[in-house]
Every structure is written in C-alpha cells, then in structure tokens.
Amino acid sequence: MASNHPTSDRRADVELRLPADGAYASVLRTTTAGLAARLDFPIDDIEDLRMAVGEATAMVLGDAVAGTDLVARFYQQPGELTLTLTAEVAGPVKLDYDSFAWQVLTTLASEAAASTTDTELTIALTMLSSHQESGR
Amino acid sequence: MADQLDEDAPGGPTGAELTRQRSAELFAVLRDEDAPAESRDAAREGLVRLHLPLVEHCARRFRNRGEPLEDLVQVGTIGLIKSVDRFDVERGVEFSTYATPTIIGEIKRYFRDKGWAIRVPRRLQELRMQIGTATGELTQSLGRSPTPRELAEAIGCTVEEIVEGIESSNAYSTLSLDASDDGEDGGAATMLDAIGVEDIGLEHVEIRESIKPLLDRLAPREKKILLLRFFKNMTQSQIAEEIGVSQMHVSRLLNRTLEQLRTSLEED
Question: Is the ipTM of this complex over 0.85?
C-alpha cells in the first residue's frame, strides 16, 4: 500500500468547493467518478467510489455548520485516488465507527479515516484500483 | 401469471379476490387519519407492492419499443404511487381501474419526454445499453470488472463517452426497480423475483447488533443485496452474476438503498 497520504503541504490535484448542502452531493459523486475513470479504474471500483463518496458526504454534512462550504480535495496517483472531504463544524465531532455508514465506507474504500479539530471534520478515502496494471 | 385485469371482472379468480380484499384493508389503514404514521406508511408501501403486477402488465404492452422493460416498470411504478396517493376509496371504483390510466400515462410520458430531447439522450440511451452489454461480456472474458478504457475499445468510442454513459445510467435511479408484490398474485415476477437470492448463504453473515434495526427496515431483497455487498464483501459484478441482473442494475439498487437508509436515519 502506498504511503503517500495527502498532507497539508501537498497540493491537491483537484479541489472542489461546494455549499455544505446535500443537493450538491451528486456533483461530488460525478466528479469523483470522472476522475476515477480517467485513472482507468474498473467500473466496479468507480461505482464503489461513487457510493463511498455519497456516504462520506452525508456523514460530513451531518455535522457541518449550515451556510458553510464543503471542500473536496482529490489526490491522483497511478491506480490510486484519494479524496478528502472537509466541512466546518461547531466543535470536535465524535464519529460512530460502529455505524452502518462507517461500515459502508470501510467496505467500499481501500482506506477510510476521519479526523476532527475544534472547527473542522475531515473524512479521507483512498481507493486503490483493483486492476493494478491499469495504473501502470 | 394471473391476468391482472381480471381483477375488474366480477367473480374473478380467488387470487384477484384476495388482492382486492387486501387492497381494501390497506387503503382503510392508509386513509385513517388516526392511525399511527408508521402503519399508514407501511400500508402505502404494502399497496404499492400489492399492485405492482398491474404495473408489469401495463409495461409489457410497451416492451417492444426499444426501452428496457425494467425501466418501463420503474416509470409505471411512479404512476402506481400517484394512484395510491390519490385514489378515492368512496368512489366505488376498483383501484386497478383507477390506476391503469395513470400508470400508462406515466409510461407514455416517459416515451414522449425521451422524444423531446432527441439526439443527445438517444445517443446516451444507446450507449448506456452498449455499455451494459459490453460490461457483461468483458467481465466474463476478463474475469474481472472492465475499465472504462477497455469498454471504450470494445464499443469503439472514447473514454469520455463511457464516463458520460455511466453517468446517464446512474441518473436513472428514480424509484423501485426491484419492489414487487410479495407473491399474493404469484407469477408476476419482477427481475429480482426471479433471482435465487434464497440460495445465497447469508445465514453465516455476521451482523452487528447496532445495525440490525436499520437493516430490518429494508425490503428483503434490498437487504440481501446490501448484505452481500457490505457483509459478504462481494463486488457488484459478483452480485450481478450471482443473482442474474446487470452490474448497472446492482449499482442502481445499492445506491438507492443507501440513499433510503440515509433518509430514514435523518428522519429519526
């Protein structure tokens, strides 16, 4: 597994800022699918990612302060796509790792992690292409 | 399958008689202002399921017009739901008599709407079907899910077009593709009725207690597909093969089920 996790000093390849509103979740799903397709991920992976993003978006938005933005950052590697979703929150969030939503995320994505500060909640997802040569 | 329209005939077969009786009972609950919201919701859902064979029957009439039957059933189901919500029990008309024009109206409108937006959607429609077919074939020959590039090569289009086509297929997930009667009329099987989900050994799947109540809200078929994906860790393609539907269909069902779960969680 690659160790190149997105860090704050690494520039996102693609960044998308959206209103923290569920109505924009589809834009995020579509963008993610488009990027994964360009990395030539198998269809199964693309569909999994799409679902994972939907789930992660719902999770982040659940705690987002109304009227703020949701920021999605995408990091592309051959055969690997990482995205982080960050929303403004009113205080540190305690995520329920026993929830079905988390189960969905961890099943769909190769890696899923959440981190929270006093003002931000971030969920990071990494998807490795199940068809390794596709990354080259 | 039992002819749905017999429902209207006086002294029809027992199956139709039963359907009518059950329908009346459910409508009584649905229209009862004093009944708890939960039972009314359940009655509404029960009515939709009960009368789905009628939608199938209507959709079949249009099946040779180049649209997949499953899509027509899906669209017709919208008509059915509208009918359930608007049906006036006092009128003394059979529900099927009342609902049929609405269901057919929805299906016709679907064809009309497609006609309007002529070229792009038509092209996407065809592409969507080509992608569906090619995905199935390539999954077989490669032994894994194909990539967009492989699909593009097989179909002879660009990767961008594949992405576009996949999008258009996802935009489809309106309503219940899989919802169906639970067999009172027997026979009138939707696609997912025909699948042998019972055969899949789900009894060995471990489900956390915290998740059980959530899953129990789902229809049995949705629950099974969800369990296969998230607890047995099967891929969409594997599930598709296992139950004999397309991967796109599995994708739509999963997406919709997750959406449903999220919505029901928000309502709590």
Answer: no
